[in-house]
Amino acid sequence: MRNNIFIIILLIFSFNLNAKENSGLDIKIFKNLRCIVCQGQSIAESNSDFAQTIKIVVRDKIKQGNNEQEIYNFLAEKYGEWIVYKPKFSYLNSILWIFPYFILIFGGTLVYKYFKKKNY
Amino acid sequence: MVRCFFNSKWWLAKVIFEKMKISLSKIILLTSIIFIVVTFFLALNKDTKYNTKDLVGKEIGEFEIKFLLKDEIFTKNNLIGNEYYLINIWASWCFPCKIEHPLLMRLSNLNNIKLIGINYKDKKLNANNFLKKLGNPYDILLEDKSGTNSVIFSVFGVPESILINDKKMIIKKFIGPINEADYQFIKGKINEK
Amino acid sequence: MLSNTGNLLIAASTLSTLLIIHSTYRSLKSKDYSITKNLVYLNLFQITFIISSFFLLILSFVVSDFSLLSVYQNSHTSKPIFYKISGVWGNHEGSLLLWVNIMIIFSYLFFTLNRDTEKKFRLYTLLIQNILIAGFMVFLLLDSNPFAKIIPIPNEGLGLNPILQDPALAIHPPLLYVGFVGSSIYFSAAIGAILSNINGKNFASSVKFWVLISWLFQSLGIIVGSIWAYYELGWGGFWFWDPVENASLIPWFCMTALLHSVLVLEKRNYLYNWVLILSLITFISSVTGTFLVRSGILNSVHTFASDPSRGLYILIFLTLMIIFSLVIFLKKRFNDKFFVQPVSKETFILTNNWFMMFYLATVFIGTVYPIFTQVLYDVKISVGPPFYNAVIGPIIIPFLIIMALGPKISWIKHNFKSFKGIIIILILSSLINFLIFYFFKSYNLISNLIIISSLFLIISSFKDFFNTDVKKNYINIPNLIYHLGFGTLILFIILNHNFSEEFDFNIKVGETKKIENVEIKFLNLNLEKRENYDALVGNFDIFDNKRNFKKRLNPEIRVYDKPETLTFETAINTNLKHDLYLTMSNLEGSDFFNVKYQIKPFMLLIWFAAFLTASGGLLRLFLRR
Q1: What pTM, to 2 d.p., does this model score?
Q2: Which of A33, A78, A102, A113 should one mutate to test binding to chain B, selecting the residue with the greatest count of B CBs within 10 A?
Q3: Is the domain of B102 the same as that of B34?
Q4: Which of A46, A47, C435, C529 is the most exposed place for a label (fewest CB within 10 A)?
């Protein structure tokens, strides 16, 4: 029984090693950028002029060898943090990232307390 | 007897602690709600438009842009110190650019400031005609056919202008056509020296 | 004339509301809590007037009576009749009238269909509900009157926005309103329960039906909205974690949690306080969502014409609602011990609620955090899909597994055979995942685990389905359908996410673009003049060498002149295996067109799974009879 579980876990972890290199990096970045002249669209979906320009800039930077985070940093420096859809892990955003897990743990303790009451 | 006494004291302390916990949670709850409501209230009057105050004080980035009329490249190093520059992004197909043009002509007559024009996503013929008709205020005339070079200047539309001081630092970014107030502001700044 | 009649009907309805409040108050003060004939008639008048006013508004739109400002702003004589009608609620004023209608309809039905419930409880519920109604009617009359006049009367209306003329978009608001506006009734019932001190079981029995109805319609509303986004907005996705979408999702989490807990309350009389809290926060989150959407403080693709003054009114109303319900709850219920009775398999329902609150917290903080940073620090940030995927993704895994185990848990302690069964299903799920991974395409660890756990849920549900003693447990079939549907939904969403392929490139007429094993040929452009627009139709041939097909796709650029708009129509080729999704847009001052081609697996199955999950609710409704 335990051996089966072990084998399953081993198989799962070995998959990750074979994960293919992401060839759609440009589109992945487009999806993570906000079109700042549009109302709530990403660069990937926007047909605006601004979006077309940014697409060229991102593709140029990929060709020049910049990685994903460098491109985000460059654009955030030019247009502000809000052009990137994934919020930074900064001091300012700490509450944003921590709050859900805080609720998860808090809720978990409440459920545990309730469950424990049953077993007295 | 002694045991009863200890039990009741312990029970009393527990009750007080529980009551305090309850009051504390009530206070926390009430405070959070007031905080959220007040924030929403303040947000109602906030302007959600993009502003550029973050750019002020930063040094202009590296760039390499081709001249409109010759095959040479203009870079950040070509910016001579001891002078103010106004980088103006314009295009012949842009209507507000026509409106701000007279102010640019007036600015070009001032000392201590040089005008750099970047022709944005335009055709050379149309750009030349535009300048021939309305006059050329630019000391340096560059072109950005694809618009990608202007990203260095945080451009997302036309017209936009950036005022740089003699230390190549951004003083102000103007989104939209320059108006009279902006003209006075620029004039004031360059005479501060 | 229509305007005056409409105004009269609304005024009459408001008057009825106020009289109802007065009458219920009197009844509550009296010793026997009598429900007078007057009260019954007042309710009848109230609902008659308000429904009539709504039908009158519909009539005004259908005949294009431009003396009404909202008809002028939102309609047009050449609009097809179906969209004339849907235009009624496609704007702020009309949607508010719909809002009030639903609150009154639910109030009336709850009052008249619960004849064998305690009178004190019914009266309190009616009182609170009508106070809420009065608040909205005042808002309607003072600021958002759909029957407001315009002088001089214009000849033609303004409202011909082609994007709004879509069947899915037309029914999406009414569905959602029955959902989250309908939750007002159990908000009022919760306060009514606290004030009347009614027994938990009775409370649960009286609200159960309403929770189910609001859950069902909220689910359908969200699904239809996503379908619209996929077919109409042209980006190939169906959920963007846009603030307006989130505003409809947060009440849905509350409703799902409540759907589970109210069953526990009814059967065992446990979790009374928690059920009350959930009932309160469902409607509170609905009004909060409305506030966020209509006040203009959020940047979104869906924003109505937003107005800060409206936002202010809703905010004040919301604050009063929250403080009022909080004070009443704390005063009367918080002193009862929270966790009193012992539990058996209800722990799993509690676990569901726990996870629902986690999802709620995540979506809530993600949606409002940008507001906080802007107000407090003057910093604008964006919180988008990467945040939600990163936070919620991993947690879905234990959630799916618990969903599969929950129904069986009370046996687990004693029945080892059942335990072995679970391990077998787990191994089977992992094996299937491995086959997918090996033969098709590899993906990251989280995706692996999500696929395994969703397969686990699906297989477990099927096994339970065939194991149940039909005679005894037919009432459990809706449960199985809900859970099976949900597992299937997650499975196809994660497969779609990992196996989608997208291409974005610029191309000229006559050119062919070759990317990986796909060849896209831009044959030509045709200009077609249609009824109320011109269509620039692109003819594309897609050759896929890996999947072995050749398909013709025709995306369009539509040019409307009343008003002058440009829309981009996606060409979608659908079959069970995948959708082929093609959009084309022109580039300013260039012969090139920007083309986005996507291969999206299992879209139809995603819609099927979503409807399957919702249909569990429909089935449950029928089985009640």
Answers
A1: 0.90
A2: A78
A3: no
A4: C529
